[in-house]
């Protein structure tokens, strides 16, 4: 029986349409090779759409809710005041669709240069799970006496046991299928109330997963250990704000934002999960063909794993890694191929079955189907 999935495509702003276009070409190749089908609906969203219509997430919410997954390009433009798109669309989607876990692999692929001298792929293979709907990103705060010397700003950080439990339990399950180590990253010596709640949840759930070793690292110490000894970590679970920071550090270690990927997972299956490269819209290079589409294509692989198409996910990941190893540079005019040429080369390897699967022997991207909230369960 041929499986079919509904996928919402949101190309967005800047380089978003270019990298998503390459990802969709690879998706065509994966469908041809592995025999599944996707029904795709493309929606306008982002800065230009907002400037033209004033619309953010509310107008799309119900249309997106019926989809199996969302493939997202990028969002942002200097003509839109900072915070409008981030809060009115991206954070709104994460909260409204309960995309509770932001999953960010930090994997140095063969042939990809890292700024960390001597770092090898064998030493850099971890996953950071960021709580995605609470913390300082709930968007609650106020300013008193704004614009005066007496201005006072208050910004709230919300942490609930239920919200923490669902991402910590997910992280334990993820660790079970990997090297069986879970690290909590927080700042329990200063943020004692929130930190204590996080630590209590980890301690309580650890009793259900005795096979998993539990560790703790302060977030400032994480910024030291992650670049120097990434092999120390397997699955790292952390709060929203800390996760936002350390995942970008992880992306630099693995070769840059252009090769990093993410999944925003609804863990109950009650709404679609969203998959996006973590780079921004890069309006300064939009339309030049300089953007590396690898992050978007690896996000596609994450989506395929989530949908239950593990073989296709692994083939897409392997083909992308193979092409990354062929590029003289990872982005810009020195990349050696245009955005569309990189996508076409990856699609060719997938369609022909010539992707070197040995490049990704342990593929997180291919195994998402076994995790909570997967549409492939």
Automatic annotation (TrEMBL):
Domain Isopropylmalate dehydrogenase-like residue range list: 6-346
Broad class of enzyme this protein falls into: oxidoreductase
Needed co-factor(s): Mn(2+); Mg(2+)
UniProt-listed Enzyme Commission number(s): 1.1.1.85
Keywords, sorted A to Z: Manganese, Metal-binding, NAD, Oxidoreductase
SUPFAM superfamilies given in the database record: Isocitrate/Isopropylmalate dehydrogenase-like
Coiled coil: none
GO molecular function terms listed in the Swiss-Prot or TrEMBL record: 3-isopropylmalate dehydrogenase activity; magnesium ion binding; NAD binding
Xref: PANTHER family: D-MALATE DEHYDROGENASE [DECARBOXYLATING] (PTHR43275:SF1)
Protein name: 3-isopropylmalate dehydrogenase
Protein species of origin: Leucobacter viscericola
Lineage start: Bacteria, Bacillati, Actinomycetota, Actinomycetes, Micrococcales
């Amino acid at each position: 029986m041929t499986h079919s999935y509904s996928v919402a495509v949101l190309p967005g702003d800047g380089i978003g349409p270019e990298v998503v276009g390459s990802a969709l070409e690879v998706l065509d190749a994966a469908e041809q090779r592995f025999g599944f089908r996707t029904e795709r609906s493309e929606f306008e969203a982002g800065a230009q759409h907002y400037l033209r219509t004033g619309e953010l997430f509310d107008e799309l919410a119900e249309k997106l809710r019926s989809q199996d997954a969302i493939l997202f390009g990028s969002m942002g433009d200097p003509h839109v005041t900072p915070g409008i798109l981030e809060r009115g669309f991206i954070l709104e989607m994460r909260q409204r669709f309960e995309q509770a876990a932001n999953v960010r692999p930090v994997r140095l692929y063969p042939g990809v240069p890292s700024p960390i001298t001597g770092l090898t792929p064998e030493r850099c293979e971890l996953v950071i799970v960021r709580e995605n709907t609470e913390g300082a990103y709930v968007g609650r705060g106020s300013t008193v006496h704004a614009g005066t010397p007496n201005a006072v700003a208050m910004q709230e950080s919300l942490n609930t046991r239920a919200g923490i439990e669902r991402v910590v339990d997910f992280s334990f399950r993820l660790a079970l299928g990997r090297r069986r180590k879970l690290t909590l990253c927080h700042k329990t010596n200063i943020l004692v109330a929130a930190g204590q709640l996080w630590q209590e949840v980890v301690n309580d759930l650890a009793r259900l997963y005795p096979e998993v070793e539990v560790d703790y690292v302060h977030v400032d110490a994480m910024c030291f250990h992650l670049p120097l000894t990434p092999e120390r970590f397997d699955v790292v679970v952390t709060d929203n704000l800390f996760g936002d920071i350390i995942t970008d550090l992880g992306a630099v270690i693995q070769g840059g934002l252009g090769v990093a990927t993410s999944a925003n997972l609804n863990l109950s299956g009650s709404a679609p999960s969203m998959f996006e490269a973590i780079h921004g819209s890069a309006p300064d290079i939009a339309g030049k063909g300089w953007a590396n589409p690898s992050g978007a294509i690896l996000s596609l692989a994450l989506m395929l794993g989530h949908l239950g198409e593990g073989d296709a996910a692994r083939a897409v990941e392997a083909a992308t890694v193979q092409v990354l190893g062929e590029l003289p540079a990872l982005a810009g005019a020195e990349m050696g191929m245009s955005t569309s040429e990189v996508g076409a080369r990856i699609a060719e390897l997938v369609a022909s079955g010539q992707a070197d699967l040995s490049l990704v022997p342990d593929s997180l991207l291919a195994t998402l189907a076994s995790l909570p909230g997967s549409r492939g369960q």
